[in-house]
Amino acid sequence: MEKHIQQDGKFKFFELGEGQPLVILHGLMGGLSNFDGVMNFFPEKGYKVIIPELPLYDLPLLKTNIKTITTYIKEFIDLRKYGKVVLIGNSLGGHIGLLTTKLYPEIVKALVITGSSGLYESAMGESYPKRGDYDYIKQKAENVFFDPKIATKAIVDDVYNTVNDRSKLIRTLAIAKSAIRHNMAKDLPKMPTPTCIIWGKQDTVTPPNVAEDFNKLLPDSDLFWIDECGHAAMMEHPNKFNELLYTWLSNRNL
């Protein structure tokens, strides 16, 4: 599968397939390749898969927060004329998906969250290590997954380089702080958008009880578990993730 990053105005993104748009929101850790499994599966099933590059490190510091990124997503969807989309977000991306759904419900047909922040305060701070030596960061990255081997050298290098780049580190921490400020507990009961919650049973960053809380608070949600799975289900168990999501979308006629 050939992926070429496209550009439209200020937006950079991958886009593949035709049909109902699925817009994928990545988290702070790792890149767009985390969703290769989804990108390989859904275009053949009649979906257009879109992964925008989020401006996590490109904004002025005062604008580096999840509200600004949510506005960025809205502008991107409007510019590309995608209409009503299904938002899929992991970790911070899930939180951005939730906030986009709260602020712009008219563009969100459904929401999918996995290992999402937004309810659980220590999630962000814990998983983004401060500067440290390579071995410490490797261990932190491995802890994100049930199987530490998923934390390849490329992933560890990426985290290591981020936390050792002062500008990126400051922005990472600014986004983490803004995520904690934007706790969604009061908003969720007022958000009727159909939501699919897919969670790793062994997620230590956003533990299983967080998924249960999301499921209780959201008016129209379904919760699915993946066993032997940590914080990034779509990376650790791409086939299972795709199967659960595809079945859910089909059952919901999405």
Structure description:
There is one protein chain. It is built from 10 helices and 8 strands. With 254 residues, it is an alpha/beta fold. It has an 8-stranded mixed beta sheet with strand order 1-2-4-3-5-6-7-8, sandwiched between helices. Helix 2 (66-79) packs across helix 3 and helix 5 crosses helix 6. It is globular.
What attributes does this structure have?
254 residues; alpha/beta; 10 helices
**Counted beta strands:** 8
Could you give the order of the helices and strands?
EEEHEHEHEHHHHEHEHH
Number of helices: 10
Our Rg estimate from Cα atoms comes to: 17 Å
Based on CA inertia axes, which overall geometry fits? globular
Main beta sheet? 8 strands, mixed
Strand order of the largest sheet: 1-2-4-3-5-6-7-8
- Low-pLDDT parts are none
Structural class by helix and strand composition = alpha/beta
Helix content range: 40-55%
**What separation lies between the terminal Cα atoms?**
24 Å
Strand content: 15-25%
Mean pLDDT: 91
